[in-house]
Fold this sequence. Notes:
The structure holds 2 protein chains of 2 kinds.
Chain A: E1 4-13, E2 16-26, E3 31-35, H1 42-50, E4 57-62, E5 65-66, E6 77-80, H2 92-101, H3 107-120, H4 136-148, E7 154-158, H5 166-183, E8 186-191, H6 194-200, E9 203-208, E10 211-216, H7 218-223, H8 228-233, E11 238-243, E12 248-251, E13 255-258, E14 266-271, E15 276-279, E16 285-294, E17 298-307, E18 310-319, H9 320-323, E19 331-336, E20 342-345
Helix pairs in contact in A: 2-3, 2-4, 3-4
Chain B: H1 17-49, H2 65-71, H3 74-108, H4 113-119, H5 122-125, H6 128-142, H7 150-176, H8 178-187, H9 192-221, H10 224-229, H11 236-245, H12 253-279, H13 282-285
Helix pairs in contact in B: 1-12, 2-12, 3-7, 3-9, 6-7, 7-9, 8-9, 9-12, 11-12
Amino acid sequence: MSGVTLERVTKTFSQVHALDDVSLEIVSGELVALLGPSGCGKTTLLRSVAGLEEPTSGRILIGGRDVTGVPTRERPIGMVFQSYALFPNLTVRQNISFPLEVRHRPPAEIRERVAELLEIVRLGPQADRYPHQISGGQAQRCALGRALAPSPEVLLLDEPLSALDALVRTRLRDEIRRIQQLVKTTAIYVTHDQSEAMAIADRVAVMNHGRVEQVAAPPALYEEPATEFAATFVGSRNALELPIADGRIGLGAAFSIAAPAASRERAIAFFRPEDVQVAVGSMGHPAVVEMKIFLGPTTRLHLATAVGDRTARLHADMPSRAAAHLEEGSVVAVRVDPQHVRAFPVDA
Amino acid sequence: MSAAAPAVAAPNRRAGAGGTARRAAEAALFLGLGLYFAVPMIAVLLYSLATRWTAEVLPEAYTLTWWQSTLADPEILAAFQTTLVLATLTAAVDVALVVPAAYWARVRNPRIRPLVETSAAIPFALPYLVIGFALLQFSGIVAPGLQGTFPLVVLGHCAIAFPFVYWAVDGSMAAAGIERLSEAGETCGAPPWQIIRRIVFPNITPGIVSGSLLAFATSFGEFALTQMVGRGIYTIPIWSASAIRSYSGESGDFNRLAVVTMISFFVLFVLSAIVVYFNRGQAARLLPGAATVDKREQP
Lengths: 348, 299
């Protein structure tokens, strides 16, 4: 078994909590994405598992063994860095064999293992090139091969796709997933890109201010964000601050739901642009189309609507063909299925 | 005096009259710069070969006498030997001290970086005489036996030359991203000495080589500090200074000085050329993933 357990891990950099009492259980063979904005502690968490940072308090276990305080080189890990961090003086083949050589494996075994990895990361033809002679995507696949060479129990990936252009990014993302499932290693994947996290991970841990706010499978996270931060960070959402009347909040005829228990006067309602139904002249809350943005299959409408005596703005996504007849300036009626609206108390 | 000819920007490809004027201006600038460097050296070379050179634009006649007598002078040869040994030791000691310190300040303990950088700026800010005086005072307290000896001169030269090594080595560590490479080495399971030997050293050799050259050149040309700290340590700059001081009007003194200057120039020029040759293309090598994507390949 080679899961990773974090027990109440705290890391303080000069009085700032980079990690604030984080506990997380990652089971063997699972890929967990750490998702959050920059400065949320996701990279610090990853580096703590690698031993590149020492937690101020708490314990880290890999495969049931307490590795807190164990030097990086003695941990059963492999790591892929955002900036590749390939050794410029070594060829692709030498980069991949480096971790095996420093472990003094027999030469025959090294040759065999390196050939196997070159196959897995598909760098056979580039094996004898130097890092500056290959593309960014190839460099990152080489880094992946190097990280996997000693068959680590845990693979750590620190924003591995951030330095690559969009096309290469999605292809390599799927490639990383394929290889991770092929070699059946446990993996922790740090990213600030929510679609990348949802596409690649078994579970996503949303982090904010050094804390893990929610850990869930991508569909559950998308549909049922547990916190306001998770709701705003994952996917694009409308956020409307609404007054509470008779224990309910609502937007005219668009929707009405029970107010969250903890709130007294106002609450924030979150709902996705794709859950806003837009029609002309039928039942619903009136709104004015301020802008129309064609996105291919869908069109995004920027709508202005009255909330009490204020004007609120919200986004609605609809199939482009259905949006074709709408003009900027036309008045529409919006409705939202109440079961797609989530409400959170307004912070005091 | 030691630098090789400066590199000039690649020709601008903008077409038209503006481009031509620009190219002409560039050529004029390059030529002017070339003359600025070359004319004094040519003058010294001619002087080292001249029988008499007083009234005319060019010497009256040429001879190899000065070269022969200079190269046969045991005093000058000994001074050359002392200077070369001193410069080599200075470069070697500085590299041995600075590389670990720069690595430590970058990778292990970034908090000491401001301290290291400040101390690497001090020799630029203080006159060498002040440094020499401080060295005499300090050695007088801790090791009076060292005063006037060759090791103390080496120490003094190391003190004024180490900033050149530090900035060159630190710059190449920054260019190579040595912190990240060290971390990558650790995650690969490599012990520290393997990281230093197999990853750090091979990727900062350009900095070590050019830093050593700068330290070597600094020591090679240093006069004031050697004069002050070393008792009877006879180097080429000291020989040159005494040759100027003791000029008797007798023909040959300055011609032999010209010969010595030419030899010094040649030594440093050859070393610079070696460094340039050795470091060519090193910068490009430090950019992994720099190759353009081959469209036929997978990412």
